[in-house]
Design brief:
By secondary structure, the chain is of the alpha/beta class. Helices cover 24% and strands 32% of the residues. The chain has helices spanning 3-24, 36-46, and strands at 50-51, 54-58, 61-63, 66-70, 73-79, 88-89, 106-111, 115-120, 128-134. A 5-stranded mixed β-sheet has the order 1-4-9-8-6, with no helix packed on it. Strands 3-2-5-7 form a 4-stranded mixed β-sheet, with no helix packed on it.
């Protein structure tokens, strides 16, 4: 393998390790006490969808993760992370398909049909979101 390929592999491995370590910091520590940010994150996942047309991509998450909009609404995602992300439907419906979004990039999609549209970041598949579209 060429030096360039090896450098790319090393960068990917280091990034994966750093991401794994940052995700582990949101779990229970060895003393058995919960991390407040983990509880906060869990509570937001149990809340009802937010009514908004803007989603921020930050800290490797869609915020808010679940939204509700009226039919015909254009939703805009903004990548506020330093890493690239994407917004891609996951349930074979006509939904968002952004391609890669670099830091500061925005992507908009108009929801013309009612229903529930699930999406994720294809680069980081653990990043999930839902748009519920009502009449």
């Amino acid at each position: 393998m060429g030096k360039r390929v090896i450098v790319i592999i090393v960068v990917i491995v280091i990034g994966a390790i750093a991401f794994g370590l940052s995700r582990n910091s949101n779990h229970t520590d060895t003393s058995g006490q919960s991390n407040p940010s983990a509880a906060s994150s869990q509570n937001s996942q149990n809340q009802a969808p937010t009514s908004t047309d803007s989603v921020s991509i930050q800290n490797f998450a869609f915020m808010p993760g679940d939204i509700t909009v009226k039919k015909g609404t254009t939703v805009t995602w903004t990548n506020n992370d330093s890493s690239p992300h994407s917004v891609n439907e996951t349930d074979s419906q006509t939904g968002p398909d952004s391609g890669d979004l670099n830091a500061g990039d925005k992507y908009s999609f108009t929801f013309d049909n009612t229903g529930t549209f699930k999406y994720r970041c294809d680069i980081h598949p653990e990043m999930l979101g839902t748009v519920t579209v009502t009449d």
